[in-house]
Amino acid sequence: MDYSRYETYEFDNRSAINVTTGYRERSYQMHWHSYGEIILVGPGKTNIFRVNQNTYHLVEGDFVIAWPMEMHAIIDADRKDSLVIQFSNGFVNSLFDLQRIMHFYRNLHVICINNHPELVKKLTEITDKMKNIFFSNQSNRELMCCMLLMDFMLVLDEHREEFDPELSTEEHKPYEDDVIRRMMQVTDYIKNNLTADDLSQGAMAQMAGISRDYFSRIFKNVTGMNYNKWLNMIRLEKATELLSHKNMSMTEVAMLSGFQSIPSFNRVFHEEKGMPPGEYRTLFVDDMKGK
Q1: pTM of structure
Q2: Taking a C-beta distance cutoff of 8 angstroms, is the pair 168, 161 a contact?
Q3: pLDDT tens digits, residue range 6-15?
Q4: Read out DSSP for 122-145?
Q5: What is 17-167's CATH number?
Q6: Is-contact 130 148, C-beta < 8 A?
Q7: Most exposed of 80, 135, 173, 214 (fewest Cβ within 10 Å)?
């Protein structure tokens, strides 16, 4: 197995998932890309990672999660014996529950073995299986690894109460399939119509056929955030995708993402990413270039 192919997988055209290890360099600069990344930290006295504006000093067995299009860097860490799992943003967005989990845990970037030993044990067992399958010659290894990635997300979601209150502000409640189906229709509509005239919560509740207050409660419970914050997150996801096209102006990026003005776009972007969109664009790493 050629382990040197670290982050060179062309997810859009080839695969939904990639698993790598054995990378010799101990650091890599701040960057972002269209796919997400899960790192099982390797041994060594020094394992320092950065995701967005936070720096983490970790130990062997900890997990690092960089969601799609998030800024991250490896400051100084053992990459030879760490395990890296990369997953397509398109794959995550293909299932509503995966979208829900990703948005709910968007502020969760490390899972520490000392704080969550039972959870880390379960997640490590899943990633070990994924590694063994991916490095095998099985013809269906991609499908099996994607199923294990869903297991990873499911186990994470089952342990949501272990994390800080801001990640779980109210008890997760199941809803009938019809309600979830309506929510999926609304979220799909929004993602495909970010430039629509009216994407207000009231209009979306009407589209779902439920009251505004009920819509608000369901939306918060299902996605982990209020409607307006979620809408800005979706607009930023679209904006970051468009920023990878270097021939597109900032005005075009802002307008196609549903922002009504450049100042509004710059403000929301800076609040979430910690830097203006122009600077963020310069740190993009093309999936085809690798590291």
Answers
A1: 0.74
A2: yes
A3: 333 344 445 7
A4: HHHHHHHHHHHHHTS--TTHHHHH
A5: 2.60.120.280
A6: yes
A7: 173
